[in-house]
Every structure is written in structure tokens, then in C-alpha cells.
Amino acid sequence: MLTESEPHYRQPLLKTPFHERQRALSQLDSFVAWAGYTTVDVFTSVEQEYFAVRNASSLYDLTPMVKYRISGSDALRFLNRLVTRDLRKLKPGKVAYTVWCDDAGHLIDDGTVFCLAPHEYRLCTAERQLDWLRASALGFDVEIREVTEEVAALAVQGPTSCRLLRAVGLDGVERLKPFEHAQFSMPRAAGGAAEIVMMVSRTGFTGDLGYELWMQPADAESVWDALMAAGSTRAVRPIGSRALNIARIEAGFILPNADFVSAAHTLHLGTERSPLELGLAWLVDMEKGHFTGRRALVAEMARGPRRQLVGLDIEGTKPAHNALLYSARSGRKEAGSVTSAAWSPTCKRNLALAMVDAAHIALGSQLWAEIYLNRELVWERRMVRARVVERPFFAPARRRGTPPADF
Amino acid sequence: MNSASRTRYDSIVIGGGHNGLVCATYLARARRNVLVLEAADRLGGAAVTREFAPGFRVSACAHLLHLMSPGLMRELRLEQHGLQLAHAALPTVALAGDGQHLAFAPNDLSALARASAADAAQLADWHALWRRLARALHPVLSATPPRLGTDAWRDRAALLGIGWRIRRLGRRDMRELLRIGGMCVHDLLEERFTLPLLKGALALDAVLGTNYGPRSPGTVMSLLYRLAASQGVDALSLPRGGLGALSEALASAARAAGAQLRTGTPVERILVQQDRAVGVVLASGEEIAAGNVISSADPKSTFLKLLGSEHLDAGFVRRVAHVRSRGLTAKLHLALDRLPQFPGLDTAALQARLLVAPSSDYIERAYNHAKYDEYSSAPILEVTLPTLVDPGLAPPGQHVMSVIVQYAPYALAGGWDAARAAFTARIVDTLARFTPQLRSSIVAAELLAPPDIEREFRISGGHWHHAELALDQLLMVRPVPGAAQYRTPVPGLFLCGAGCHPGGGVMGLAGRNAARQVMQEAA
Hints:
Number of domains of chain A: 3
CATH superfamily of the largest domain in chain A: Probable tRNA modification gtpase trme, domain 1
Largest sheet of chain A: 6 strands, mixed
Strand content of chain B: 15-25%
Radius of gyration of chain A: 22 Å
Number of strands of chain B: 18
CATH class of the largest domain in chain A: Alpha Beta
Structural class of chain B: alpha/beta
Oligomer: heterodimer
Helix content of chain B: 25-40%
Strand order of the largest sheet of chain A: 11-12-13-10-4-14
Number of helices of chain B: 17
CATH architecture of the largest domain in chain A: 2-Layer Sandwich
Order of helices and strands of chain A: EHEEHEEHEEEHEEHEEEHEHHEEEEEE
């Protein structure tokens, strides 16, 4: 938080309520900026942090996630006209992942909508959208308030995450099904009178069993301490955004500024992306009534996509970061490019998300990826095979099982 | 539809103003089954004649007919439908405080020549230039504006057509058009004329009905626009019976063509099914189905009230909300128990358009107030005494004075209810400088400030032209991109009002252009 003695131009990035705890654990002092906050990129090692996600429990600070409280008698009508999914089906206690577009049907952002009460919702997004939300609110009786600073958020993800939450006293979380949320309370370590009350949702960005905790900033350190203490025997580990990135690629999730650039920010014509191009047609409900971008998307559907985001399995073990893709090994005809790439330690596959021309989007399509390798300062260029495969690359049954397995 | 016995309408036109009636007439002549729904009890929109004091009637909003092109009036055969002119070409008299008034008409510059031979010669040249430019540009107003950034041949041909017409003006006029197109009228007048009274009168024509003063950029364009609409003639005429008589003739033409006209039936909202406009719901609850719906209401009323944001994209709604549509023009009606005397003018000379705008600077000072939400302390006035040529509008021997007043901001600081009486007195004081006995002859007065115009004529913002006529709201961006070709984003919903190209004033071209577009798409 800003103080009088530290004007904003001296200290432009905000600190989250978990910052002091995380700084104490950060060996590399590697922080990055996210939506106006400083957050951890890596604590100790990307690999160790990644394995906490897949084999034990991880803590990830997602306080910078931009949160809007949307309320009023037209809240549902407003949201349904904003996003591509039909939110009339979203009841209190439920969460929906969705995207929203501009008039041209180009993606502005993706995010989650929490239905808190019949006329009250929370919209969580990676980037600020107040201008677009206000434009979208013209003609609707709706109040939009950014509550990012009022809510501290922590992702607890991994196969033992449910057990960990129960260990700190969050009884009942095991009954939460995917995309459900509810209020829970846990005792204070110091034995204070009042319990800590928070909202827990079974959501996440890892494609694994996991939860997200939404609490008062004042409770953040107590919750962190309780989880770290209870997790000391369960290999709990705080993670940074680089480890999370590997997990989300395995899960096949898209990331703004990696797999697409928001249409609110693109400067070059043709670099915007539609939800159809991003392979998110399943999120677009053409039957629900009008929403912003619908007419453009209907037209796009009729003419067929020009390109689409696909999953690639790439030969070898070297991640194909930023690789150009070709239809033949000769490398004469470009067919697209890689947007996100990672070696998957769990799948033991060299994975990538790539935007490829429509001719090559069928499962099994064969492409060639141009990878540049730095071998002890000697650069090599390799053309390796890449095959279009199904996403998600990794989807363990435990991500859906309710109640989750006990550890 | 569920009831086969009920008439199935091809088109419903919302609003029975002149554009709605023109649109309905053209559609009905093309054998479309058309229903016009007018909220008020009489047709005509802002071109109506109504009583404002017992026995006194006046053209309640527009009070001169000069923008409707002769071609359109011929096509509609308005004379056969009862339109008579009480006066076909009113001269203009620029009133001077010292009684040395300046009278001129496009075809009679003799009085002006006595005051300044040089100015008279310049004015003749000026009229000739405007007529050439207007002839080149009038076809642009009569056509659907092209869309930008499409590959459609129709758009490209239309763009080329505009370029070709400008090129065909010849090198001298084309250069002059490009040079003056974005200028302010004050600078252009300074180049040519010397008499402040003449410059004031010409500047008034450039700013009347706009949100600008003579030093605002684009005021040459608004003058050019006015002249292009009337095909360069700008003959100020008075229909017998006021502007309402024009509307009656238009209504008669529409009925004769087969259109059905219903008054006193306000539309509550436009019905949308499966992303298509399929009819309307009346305030009474009655639903009427139609193949398409054509709205002559202003863009904000059409999209934000009658249709609703939920049927539109957010970016489009934002553009509509940003359309500049606040009126700055008021209307004063005075019932007089005798003919006012203007020292320096005989009774015959009062059969004119009298202007109170003694110099360009006077207008600019009047405009200054409006920038800060105040009314002008010394307003500019366009005055007519229609009873001189059309005595039926008032009891025998008595008269009506109709005054267009600027500047009167829509969002007046403190509100209009507290200011109406004071502003009326201010206008009467201003007039009394030229006709000292006026006050004692006033039987009744009615001031329509922009919020009153908004209420009475159902125009959001109370702007005559529905949307400001300015470079950023003309042609293919009028009223907003995405609705500038009479089509709207909602299939089956069209616009035909003054908010569309080519705009407002009692012009009627928007209605005709829209009808053509509707027939093209629903063929």
C-alpha cells in the first residue's frame, strides 16, 4: 500500500497482503509486475515449484487478479450482454469461466464470473476493464465497483490441496464441486475469538485439483501462516508465475499477452483474435440472445475461421518458444507460430500452443517447427516435427472427483 | 403471425414527421404496405402549425421552408396535395440599431449596392460560387453515403462519385472548396465583405441551428450544407397555413400512395425476435408486426429508448451515446394585437426575414455565453411576421411574430424553469431596440427552450437536426459508423430521420434515401 512518505512515482508497484511472507521465502528475489502489483516470478527453482502443483500442494498469490463487484437489478442482463456464455444458468454459489469481445467479435479478455447472490456478481480478470465495463453498462441499471484491493486471493492447488485446507480447519471444502464456491471459516492460530471467514471456490489455473481462497486483506498473513504450518509435513510450497505457466500450458489454458493480445490493446490490424480462433467456440452461446460481438461472430462462423489455436506435440525436448511453423521441412511456406511452449515434466512431452492457419488445424496435422537452440553460446537452428494433438494435454481425474482423495 | 385476418405490414414507420411521411410515401408508391405511427395527435413532427394563444397559430418549430429541394417537392406532387405558398421567396432584412437597415435577396441586390457597391458585387459573386458548389454537392445529399473500408463496388463507386463531382467543379472551384471547407465563416466573410451588417446576416445563416459561433471551424461547411440542400436556391418560403400545411400535404401524398397514418399512438419499443426487428409495441400495449421497422426518431431515442442497449454491441451504444445532440436554439412566439412598427421599414418591407445579428462579433459574443451554459445576454434573432402574408393565422387585424433565438443552451445553468421569463424579457428587449412599441402590443408569449422542444417534439436534446451538423457527424459517420446507411446493426431496423445523412431541417432527403435503401434490402 502507498504511504505518505512514498509517493506513487517512487514506488509505482503495490504490494499484496502476502508480500512480506513471500519476500521472506524468496531466494532469488525474482519479482515481476502484474496489474500494478509486484508478484513472485520464481521463489527457488521453477521445477521444484512446478512439482508442488502436480505432486503435493502449491500456494500462489493471485491478489493482483482484477476483481469487480457487479450489482443492481440489471446485473444479470448486463453480464449476459457482456460475455459470450449464457449466465442465466449461473446460480448463486457457482462460477463460470467465460470471455468477452468487442463489437468486431475480437477477444477483450477472459475471466471468471462468480454469482454471489441473485443480483450480485464478481468478475475476475487478468487486466483492468473499467472503461469497457462502463461502456457496456450504458442502458443498464448496474453498479460496477473495482474491489481488487479489498480482497486478498490465494490459489491452493495440487493433489493434496483439499487435505491441506481441511487441516487448517476449513471443514466442508471437500464437498465443493468444480466451479462451486461457498463461505467457510477457520479458527485463528492465536486462538482469537472470531474465526476467519472467507470464500473458497473450487477453481484454478493449473488443471489440477485446487481451490482459490478469497479473504479480507487483514486475514491474509494468518491464513498464509496456517497453510504453511499445516503444509510443512505435506510438501507445500509457494510458487511463482513461471511454474504456474508450465502447469497452465499442460492444462491448455490461454494467457493474455502470450496466446492473444486483448483487442483493447492491439495496435496492428489483424492481430486481434476471436474466441473462435482461440478454440473457445464452446464458450460462445449463439442461442442465448444478443451479446456484444455476436453478429460479427455469426459472420465469422459462416465464413469459417482463418486460423485457430491448437495444441502441438513437438519432437525432441527443447521448448519451441516463439517458433515459426511451416507446412514442410523446407521452411518455405509459413503455417503459423507458437504462442506458448514448455517441456511438460508430467506428460514427458514437448508441448506448445500455436496459432496456425486453417488448413492445418485438424488433429494429426503435421507441421515443422523452427527452433533456435543455444548450446554453450553456439546457436543452432533445428527443423523438428510438430503434430496437432488434443488439448488439454494433462487432465487428471482428480481435478473433478468429489470429494477429493484424502492424503 | 397468429392472425391471418389482420393486415400484414411490410413496413412500420415510427414518427409522422416530414422524413417519416416522405419515407412512407416512397415505400407506398412502390406498393409496400406501410403504417406510420405518430405519437402526437397531429402529423408533422417539428413541421407543425398549432395554436399557442387563443386564436393565434404559428409554425411551432421550423418556421421557414427553404431546405426541401425543388426536385423532391415535384416528385411528391405537393401542390396537388394542397401545398400553397403564402410567399415564395422572402427577402432578408438585416436590422440596424440606427434604422439604416439592409435589405437584400439573391435576385435583388439594388438596396445593398446603394450601401456598398463593392459588397454587392462580392455578394453576387458569392451567390454564384455557392450555386456552383451546391449543384456539385446536392447529389451527394440525395444518395446513401458510402461505407469506408469495404470491398463492395457500390461503396467504391459512391466514393469515386463524390471525388468526381468535386473534380468536375474545375480547378478554381475545387481548390476554393478544399480551401474553405474547414474554415470558420468569420474569416471567409472578412476576405470579401466590408459592411458589418451584411457579414452578421451571412454569418447567422452559417450558425443558426448549430452549436457554433462564426469563429468556430466548420461553419463554412454548415453554410455550404444549407445551400447544397436547397440546390443553391435557398429561397425562403412560407407555406400558407404555416409549416403544418406542408405536413398536411405530405400526409395527403402518403395517404394517396396507400400508406396508413395513425396519430396519437406512441411507440413504446421495437420488437426484436431472433435478432431481427419484427414490429413494435405501442404504449397502449398493442403489438403490431411488420417486415421491417423504420424509425424517424432521433438516433438516441431509437437505439437507447425504443430498441434498448441489450440488442446492440457495447461499442456501438457508446458511439450513439456520444452523438452531439444538445440543442442551442429556442423559439419565441408572440401574439400581437397590432402590427409592430419598425422605424426605417415600411409595412411591405416587413414581409421579410428580419435578422438581429448586426455583426459577426455580435454573434460571437452571443455565442460566448452558451459555452458556459448561460443564455446570450444579447441573443441573435431570426424574425418572421407570417400573418402579413397569411392573415388566417391570427384574429383579424392581429399578428403573430415567430422568432428563432440563439443561443439558448439545453443544459442551462440553474435550469430553464427559473429562466424562461427572464430570457423572454431579454428577447423582447432586444427586439424593442428595433420596434420600440412592441411590448405594449404583446397579448401572449410562448418560449420553447431546447428542453421544451425535446418534450413537445420528442427529440432527445431538443436539437433541430437530431444530431449536430458538423464535419464529424456528416456523411458516412452520421449519426455513427455502423448506422450511416439507414441500416442499423439490427436486421430489419432502419433509420430515416434527421439524424441520418443528409440531416435535418425540413429537407426530407433522409426519408427518401432511407426508402430507397429499405427497398434495396427487402426486395
